[in-house]
Inverse folding.
């Protein structure tokens, strides 16, 4: 699903690499937590998977494709098999909940019939059935994040990338979101989630990858958060 | 591609940027109108140069029957064959100055006149035998006009010797300067229009960065992301192009036919016809569509990376 072979990344005009010689493999259907303090390289790791950045050295394989050899015009097709969720939800405030989810299908040219059928289905799945016509501003943070997850999942991606999805939510709401992500993971979708939330990591007992100053310092199955900050 | 989606995006984009769009339309219209008018002025010079301008430098006009009564130089009547032959022989001897000589009969003169002044009312009042027979001479050095003039202007049978270029060159100089000024102003306006388009597209892309960001993440092709912006610029360009076409048509109408009515005031000048104006319009429109589309495309390459 994801394979990093001796991957390093140095951003232009910077001497210190953001990622140093990282090698790891994530299998289909895994649930992986990515932990580490700010600036440890978590975001770079995710950006490399999404091919928002290219590795300076080493190879990144996602869904069986070598991203260094993937031409620019094929990148959108690769991204259609990925879903992404962010800390700040990134919803369109002037579109309803349903339109926000439909937007993801419209812009990749899905037929209207498919959209009309799948959008309510996926909203039901994330627990927002019947809230299709509400505006994002009328929803709580947890509900907004569910809309974002619905949008990320509506195209049934093989891989879901989540960058601190509970970062803006209170602990109780976070638990709900984690249950949802777990449920999505059980449908066979691989989930890679960067987080600072110690409680969640310790509770879920999934594989934990820890980064420190760009290096992979720990890779533990059924791990815990493991360090104090 | 879902047309409705793209169209609504364009509508939103244009309305959000109304003032900038307006500036783009005006500057595109002005630069294209100048582009069109410099093309038309070049045409005008071409029409006025007529048949002989680029081929010869000096013309020796012979007396014809009609001149015998009106012109003191031609009192002996029309030019004779012997007179013409003597002149031709003398011209051939001057091969240091003369490059070539062509003979224009009065029939040919009538034909060329008709070609040059096709729709002028003057043509109808003329007959072929009113036209003058002439030798059209090409000089090795166009400045040596005086040599020919002094040698032949008092020759029997010669009505006059004319330096062809002198008669029209001053007018052409004026027209050429105008063409250059128009081209220069056009170049400036073009740069201004391009900067405005690039800036408008940038502002538009920036104000919609949230949407385009999501589109990128969910895997919309860059074509799909860029098309609304490019069409937006193209639409503004189309309005500008149409406005420019209107200005050109109005310019021809008010300068030549009505208003300034130059066609009536300067009967001897053959003005470019409507066909010359109409053939420029598709060119102007095409430039109006392509220029903003290209500018938008290059602006987006920088601001909407994959």
């Amino acid at each position: 699903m994801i394979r990093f072979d001796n991957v390093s990344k140095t951003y232009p005009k910077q001497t210190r690499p953001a990622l140093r010689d990282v090698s790891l493999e994530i299998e289909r259907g895994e649930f992986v937590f990515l932990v580490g303090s700010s600036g440890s390289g978590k975001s770079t790791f995710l950006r490399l998977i999404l091919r928002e950045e290219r590795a300076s050295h080493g190879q990144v394989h996602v869904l069986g494709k070598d991203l260094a050899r993937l031409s620019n015009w094929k990148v959108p097709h690769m991204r259609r098999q990925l879903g992404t969720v962010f800390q700040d939800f990134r919803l369109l405030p002037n579109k309803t909940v349903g339109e926000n989810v439909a937007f993801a299908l419209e812009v990749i040219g899905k037929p209207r019939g498919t959209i009309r059928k799948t959008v309510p289905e996926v909203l039901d799945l994330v627990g927002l059935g019947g809230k299709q016509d509400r505006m994002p501003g009328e929803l709580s943070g947890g509900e907004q994040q569910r809309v974002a997850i619905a949008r990320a999942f509506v195209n049934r991606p093989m891989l879901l990338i989540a960058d601190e999805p509970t970062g803006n939510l209170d602990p109780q709401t976070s638990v709900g979101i984690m249950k949802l992500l777990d449920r999505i993971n059980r449908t066979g979708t691989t989930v890679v989630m960067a987080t600072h939330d110690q409680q969640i990591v310790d509770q879920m007992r999934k594989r934990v990858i820890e980064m420190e100053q760009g290096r992979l310092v720990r890779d533990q199955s059924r791990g815990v958060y493991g360090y104090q900050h | 591609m879902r047309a409705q989606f793209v169209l609504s995006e364009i509508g939103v984009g244009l309305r959000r940027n109304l003032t900038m769009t307006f500036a783009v339309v005006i500057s595109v219209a002005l630069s294209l109108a100048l582009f069109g008018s410099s093309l038309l002025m070049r045409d005008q010079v071409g029409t006025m140069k007529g048949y002989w301008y680029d081929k010869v430098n000096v013309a020796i006009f012979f007396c014809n029957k009609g001149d015998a009564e009106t012109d003191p130089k031609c009192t002996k009547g029309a030019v004779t064959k012997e007179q013409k032959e003597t002149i031709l022989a003398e011209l051939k001897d001057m091969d240091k100055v003369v490059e070539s000589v062509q003979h224009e009969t009065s029939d040919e003169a009538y034909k060329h006149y008709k070609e040059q002044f096709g729709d002028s009312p003057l043509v109808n009042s003329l007959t072929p035998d009113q036209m003058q027979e002439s030798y059209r001479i090409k000089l090795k050095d166009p400045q040596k006009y005086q040599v020919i003039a002094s040698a032949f202007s008092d020759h029997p049978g010669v009505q006059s010797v004319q330096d062809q270029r002198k008669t029209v060159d001053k007018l052409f100089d004026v027209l050429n300067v105008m063409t250059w000024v128009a081209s220069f102003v056009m170049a400036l306006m073009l740069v201004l229009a391009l900067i405005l388009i690039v800036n408008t597209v940038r502002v538009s892309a920036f104000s919609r960065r949230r949407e385009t960001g999501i589109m990128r993440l969910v895997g919309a092709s860059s074509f799909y992301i860029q098309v609304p912006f490019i069409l937006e610029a193209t639409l503004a360009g189309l309005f500008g192009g149409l406005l420019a076409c209107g200005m050109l048509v109005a310019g021809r109408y008010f300068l030549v036919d009505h208003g300034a009515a130059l066609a009536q005031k300067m009967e001897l000048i053959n003005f470019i016809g409507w066909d010359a104006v109409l053939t420029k319009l598709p060119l102007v429109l095409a430039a109006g569509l392509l220029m903003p589309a290209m500018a938008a495309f290059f602006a987006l390459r920088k601001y909407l990376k994959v």
Chain A touches chain B through 23 residues (CB under 8 Å). Chain A has a mean pLDDT of 93.
